[in-house]
Amino acid sequence: MKKVILSADGDSCVYEVPNAVADDLERYCLYFCTEWIRSEPQTRKYRIHGVVCYDQDDFIDYLNQYVFPNEPSRLIENLGWTNFGQNLPEAYRATPYFNF
Predict the structure, then answer these.
(1) CA 92 to CA 73: how far, in whole Å?
(2) Helices then strands (H, E): number in the chain?
(3) Measured between alpha carbons, how far is 67 from 93 in angstroms, rounded to an integer?
(4) pTM for this structure?
(5) What does the alpha-carbon distance between residue 56 and residue 15 come to, in Å, rounded to a whole number?
(6) Tens of pLDDT, residue by residue, the chain (100 residues)
(7) What is the rounded distance in angstroms from the CA atom of residue 86 to the CA atom of residue 9?
């Protein structure tokens, strides 16, 4: 398990995720928000009046339920507003980051 930072135009949150996700974070995140969430029947709850609405917690739920159920991801720390990763604490500056 490795750490990543996720946000959705708000607080940046540190999560522990499977190594495969951390090593290819952008690919997993983009698939979630461009393919999976727009096509799978179980994602109807995210589609409201023609608009898709989700955040990093929904991505973590997706990983835990559908992709890596045996390697659950979890929230480690909320860093607060970091200006889309511009103002990360020194300890997290090399951590993979994705904003939804």
Answers:
(1) 18
(2) 4, 6
(3) 27
(4) 0.92
(5) 10
(6) 999 999 999 999 999 999 999 999 999 999 999 999 888 888 888 888 878 889 999 999 999 999 999 999 999 999 999 999 999 999 999 999 999 9
(7) 13
